[in-house]
Amino acid sequence: HFALLPPRPGGNAPGRRRCRVVTLEERESAARGGPQDAEVVMVLLALMQANADVLDVDANCAAVDAAAGKAAAAGARLLLTPELFPVGYAPLRLRAELDPAVLPSLRRALAEIARRNGIALVYSLPAVTAAGEWQITATLVDENGDELLSYAKVHLFGPEERQAFVPAGDSPGVLDFHGVRTSLVICYDVEFPEAV
Q1: How far is CA 176 from CA 14, 19, 120, 173, in A?
Q2: Pick from 166, 73, 53, 65: nearest CA to 110
Q3: Whole-angstrom Cα distance, residue 82 to residue 122?
Q4: Could you report the per-residue pLDDT of 122-149, keeping only the tens digit for each?
């Protein structure tokens, strides 16, 4: 029950467009003031779709770096990568063969990719809790490589994920990302309405 009317003439900031949004109620009450202005904020997202090489961190990070460069050159403000891409999606192999001591340096390398390419990045990695439990996480870093948001997967999918990882209990956080309310969920989490 909304109508988007053409933007009014005038200078708008890049990435922002002003348009008039008219509800049916406003249309019916046009005599009392007519349509209202609303700001529509647009953020161009780039989605990386690729197959990772399991446990080949260098090759996977090179692929993220190349995708980040292309996305930034195309004007995207954010690149989203697949679940566990930097280490490869293989839950049981990761649990058996991945040394969690490499994770801090891997996080720094991914933040550097974002900073070097001037684009925000969402990446997913395993994390080990203080209790020694493994979780699947997603992290949003801004174009300077600074961490803005982190989330651990609540709804694990399939027997391998459930054998290798434990579900988190916390709901996803929400923040303002360039004028857009933003949160993180991972893969199967989208099937559950309380998260989305």
Answers
A1: 18, 21, 13, 11
A2: 65
A3: 9
A4: 999 999 999 999 999 999 999 999 999 9
